[in-house]
Amino acid sequence: MPVQSVTPAVFHDDAPGVLAGLAVLPAAGGGLLECLAAVPDPRDPRGIRHRLPVVLGLCQAAVAAGCTSVADICAWAQGAPQDLLELLGARRDAAGRRVPPHPDTIERVLEAVDPQALADASGACLAARAGLAPAVFPVAGPVLQPAIALDGKAVRGAVTADGAVPFLLAAATHGAISQTVVVAERMIGPKTNEVPEVPPLLRGLAAYAGLAGCVLTMDAGHTVRSHAELICGELGGHYVMTVKGNTPGLFRALDALDWASVPVQHQAAGTGHGRTERRTIQVMDAPEQVQALFPHVRQVFLIERYVTRKIRRRKKNSRKYKSVTIRSAVAALCITSLSAREAAPEHLAAYVRGHWAIENKIHWVRDVTFREDYSQVRTGSRARVMATLRNHAIGLIRLAGHSRIAPVIRKIRYSPPLLHAILGLHQAPQYQP
Predict the structure, then answer these.
(1) Residues of 109-132 as b/e, b for ≥16 C-beta within 10 angstroms?
(2) Rounded mean pLDDT of 144-148?
(3) pLDDT tens-digit map of 124-139
(4) 219 by DSSP, 3-state: which?
C-alpha cells in the first residue's frame, strides 16, 4: 500500500470558506456525506486511495456502533460490511469488492484533519437535521422559542502541548430529550477561558443556522455585557443569563429588589433519582437601575428550588442504618432580554431548566457511555476529533427518535439496517473513479 503524505492540521479561527460551504447544507437535509465533503482534506492529492468523506464516515459509523478508541475504530472498520462500504462510496479492489481504508490511513487522517472544520461540518449536519432555523419573530404573545445552551467541558483523558487539560465550548439545542444535539463547538485556547470564544462560536453557528429569535441560555460565567450586545444586536436573538458574584454590581442590584412583594407566578414539582423537587419562579419587569447596568435586559426573575431526599446513614457506634431525610434550598437570580409579551414565567422556567440538558444529555453520555474520561487518546488533535465524533453519534441517535443511547448502541452492533438509518445513508453516493 503506498504511503499517503499528510500535512499538519491547520487550526483556523473562523474558516469563512468552510462555513460558507456549510450554509447550503440545510437545503440538502443535512446529509452526513455532504457535510463531511465540506471538510478540507489535509493529505497530498497524489496517492490518495480513499476519499476523506469515506474515511470520516466510516469512523462515524464505528463510534455510533460503540467504539470508544482509535484502535477500536480501526479494527471495526476492517470488518465493516459490504453494504455499509457501498453506501459510503468506498473504493473497489480488483475483484470488485469494496475495501475499507487501512488502519494506518485512518490514524493518519484522524491526526491530520482540521478538528474545527470537522466540528463545523458536524454542527451544520445536526442543525439541518434538527431543523434549527430563525424563529418567527416578533411574536404576538408569550411562546416558547427555540433555545440553545452554551457550556464547556474538560476532555480529562487528553492533554494539550502545554500540559493542560483541553476544554471544549459547545452549543446544544434544548428541546425534548430526543432533540438535544450539539450544533457548534470550539476549543478553548491556552491562557484564555470560555468567554472570548463565545463570539466566534455564535458567529460560526449563525453562518449555517440563523439565530434570529432564538433564545441562548448560559451560566453565570458568560453573563457579560459584550455577549448580550452580540446576541441581541448582531445576531437578533435573545438571552437568559444567571447572575452571581462574578458580576457584583448587577448581583447587588438584583438582590436588593423587593422579592418578598412579588408573588410566585409559576411552580412545578417532580420526583426522580431518589429525590422530590419543587421549583418556583418570581418575575418582574427590569427596573431602570438594572437596565442601566446591563444591556437589553427586559425582565428579572428569582428561581428557587427545594429538594427533599432520603439517604441511609449508619448510626453512631452501631452497624445498623437509619433513614434520614435531607432538605435543601437553592436560589438563583436571572435576567433576560425577553419582555413579558414574549415570555411568560413558565417559559422562563423552562429555559433555565432546559439549559442543563447539555450536561445531562450530552456531557454525561460522553463520559459514561462513551467513556471519554478514560480514553487513551491523549495528545494531538485526535482527542478533539473523537469528542466531535461522539457528539455527532449522540445527535444522530437522538434525531432518529431514540432517547436512550446505550441500548441503541448495543442494537447497532448487530443491526446494520439500524446503523444505516441512524447515519441517514439510503443510497450510495455517485463518486467518480
Answers:
(1) bbbbbbbbbbbbbbbbbbbbbbeb
(2) 91
(3) 999 988 888 888 767 7
(4) coil
Give Cβ neighbours of residue 210 (< 8 Å, ≥ 6 apart).
133, 134
More confident residue, 208 or 13: 208
Tell me how far apart the alpha carbons of residues 193 and 155 are, in angstroms, rounded to a whole number: 15
User: Residue 329 CB: number of other CB atoms within 10 A?
Assistant: 9
**Residue 38, helix vs strand vs coil:** coil
Residue 271 has what pLDDT?
84
Q: Is 201 helix (H, G, I), strand (E, B) or coil?
A: helix
d(CA 166, CA 169): 10
DSSP 359: I
Identify which has the larger pLDDT, 350 or 413: 350
Q: Is 149 helix (H, G, I), strand (E, B) or coil?
A: strand
What are the C-alpha distances in Å from 205 to residues 138, 243, 320, 409?
Answer: 21, 25, 56, 28
194/15 Cα distance (integer angstroms): 19
Question: For residue 20, is pLDDT > 70?
Answer: no
**pTM to 2 decimals?**
0.85
Q: Is the pLDDT of residue 429 over 50?
A: no
- Grid cell for residue 363: 456531557
